[in-house]
Design a protein that fits this description.
Blueprint (H helix, E strand, L loop, with lengths): L6 H37 L6 E2 L11 E10 L5 E5 L3 E5 L4 E9 L5 E10 L7 E6 L5 E3 L4 E10 L14 E10 L6 H4 L10
Parallel strand pairs: 1-7, 2-10
Antiparallel strand pairs: 2-4, 3-5, 5-9, 6-8, 6-10, 7-9
Length: 197
């Protein structure tokens, strides 16, 4: 019997191939989340806002209503909500909004916010300059802080056939726990640490 027709050898090659395929699929699944996140941040796809150092300088005589939404994962012992439900802003104008967060537990807790914009098409023009969502936030036991977000709607918003008729945009955040419930660094953090953006 030749090597090529040996059933044991064929089964071994098949088994190794399948193991390699499964390992590759698992690796790809872990890599897909960060790659997708980068893709969304660069393109605004999926309602992910853009980031910029400053507003473009051009302010149009047209307003858009921004709605704010705040949510908390049930495993994070916080309350979190916008301080204003809506805000009318001129397109191209720099605007500042605040969210209020409270740690309802008796220990310091760290959280991180994920965000999106709806309708999704508006995500490519909704641009943040500063935001509490850019980094992890740690609140001391019982601490309440105001969390600011500075943003603008790019004037190109009105030039795009898909977005020019949109009159309302919703900015939504959901806070999730990050790290341990009582990390050593958080326990030593000063009172105002969580309010920085």
């Amino acid at each position: 019997m030749s090597k090529d027709t040996d059933p044991k050898r064929r089964h071994s090659i098949l088994a190794l191939s399948l193991v390699g395929l499964v390992a590759g699929m698992v690796g790809l699944s872990f890599a897909s989340v960060p790659l997708y996140r980068v893709f969304c941040q660069v393109t605004g796809y999926g309602g992910v806002p853009q980031r910029a150092e400053k507003a473009p300088g051009e302010v149009l005589d047209r307003t858009v209503t921004i709605r704010f939404d705040g949510n908390v994962d049930r495993s994070l012992p916080w309350t979190f909500a916008p301080k204003q439900q809506t805000m009318d802003v001129k397109i191209g104008e720099t605007a500042l909004a605040f969210f209020k967060a409270t740690n309802n537990s008796s220990v310091p807790v760290s959280g991180r916010a994920i965000f999106n914009v709806s309708p999704e098409l508006a995500g490519r023009y909704f641009t943040k300059i500063e935001c509490f969502c850019f980094k992890q936030q740690t609140l001391a036991a019982g601490q309440t802080v105001d969390m600011p977000v500075t943003f603008f709607v790019d004037p190109k918003f009105v030039e795009d056939e898909d977005t020019k008729d949109i009159s309302e945009i919703t900015l939504s955040y959901t806070f999730y726990p990050s790290g341990e419930v009582n990390p050593p660094a958080a326990a030593a953090a000063p009172e105002g640490d969580g309010s920085k953006s």
